[in-house]
Amino acid sequence: MFVTFEGVDWSGKSTQAALLAGWLAEEGRTVLLTREPGGTPVAEAVRDVVLHGHDMTPWAEAALYAAARADHVEHAIRPALERGEDVVCDRYIDSSVAYQGIGRGLGEDRVRELNLMVTRGLLPERTFLVLLDPEEARRRGAGQPDRIEREGDDFWSRVHEGFRSLAAEFPERFVTLDGSRSPDEIAEEVREHLRPLL
Description:
By secondary structure, this protein is an alpha/beta fold. The protein is 55% helix and 13% strand. It has eight helices and five strands. A five-stranded parallel β-sheet has the order 2-3-1-4-5, sandwiched between helices. Helix 3 packs antiparallel against helix 4. The longest helix has 25 residues, at 58-82.
């Protein structure tokens, strides 16, 4: 089973990914908990460049994310799935579509096509979208913001609406979750959706 979590920064998606991976392990399943960008040495190096490096053009940013994802899928996600493991990933293709395709204005279809090409069409069975108002999400933020997190309100609004439109476009794959609820309540809703697939 391949499951992804999406949402704006500080929405709680990383917490939910970790809670789900823990629950699946308790159920006796073998789980790979991973993240994007990241999950392999190459992808983690790209993460550092994209999030903490110099300013770059939108297409350079999109291409770097796609390069990290190509390596991550080939060396971590696909091998785990082929071994019969569950994969729980914090962000995946939909983040690139929302952030670069919609937020940066590069075009939803063009960014999706690039990422489907480099992953050889690998999509998750379920994508959980943790919805939280961008202003509320930013209030949760702590520490030094990275290059993406420093973007202005207009960008965050576009990304948030982009995620909502993706959930409406692909209702068979997306499950939307109310990110203002407690982590335990959200986690239980996630488990309810996945129990029939176990």
